Amino acid sequence: MPSITLADLLERNKVYAQNHQGFPTIAEALAAGGVFETTLVLTCVDFRVNPDKFLQTQPQDQILVARTPAGRVDAAFVQEVMLFEAFLGLKSVVVIHHTGNYFKNDEIRKFHKDRLPDHEEIDHMVFGAFDNLEQSVRDDVHILKTSPYIPKKLADNTYGFVYDIHSGLLTAVD
Ligand SMILES: [Zn+2]
């Protein structure tokens, strides 16, 4: 498989910018009577999992995308929800995990413990891997729905899905 270089990416960016349509700032949009009613999508960092493609998003859809390894909800993501709830207003949060997620927490720990044997805290690090795909979605949605920091109206509009990397389809997880 050919590997792309940073120089290639920068060259692509120059081509892209020739047809880029600029955006107003948030302040400009508000001054012009703009209303923000955003949806925050959380999914994996994986290059096979691109929510802007599989949800066919447009800027006017106001879809915010957050990405963590495996799309797991962590403390930083809860703070991200708090940030956007205060800053732009959130109408929904959507957690999407995907099929074909391969890594194991203990293998990641071993890799780093082999290089850094004195760092025992690595034994307690969690890197987001899960054993059961649907259950991991349920667990993460549960964290958000029961968080004391998330308003009930938003918790009631928090949903979980599995994305199938073969079919490209989303399936709701209840
Ligand atoms: Zn992944």
From TrEMBL:
* Cofactor(s) needed for function: Zn(2+)
**Cross-referenced InterPro entries:** Carbonic_anhydrase (IPR001765), Carbonic_anhydrase_sf (IPR036874)
Name assigned to this protein: Carbonic anhydrase
Q: Which residues of the sequence carry a binding annotation for Zn(2+)?
A: C44, D46, H98
Give the residue range of the signal peptide: none
Family in the record: Belongs to the beta-class carbonic anhydrase family.
Instruction: Please provide, alphabetically and separated by semicolons, the GO molecular function terms listed in this UniProt record.
Output: carbonate dehydratase activity; zinc ion binding
Task: Report the cofactor remark.
Answer: Binds 1 zinc ion per subunit.
Organism domain of life: Eukaryota
Which UniProt key words apply to this protein? Answer: Metal-binding, Zinc
Q: Which organism is it from?
A: Clohesyomyces aquaticus
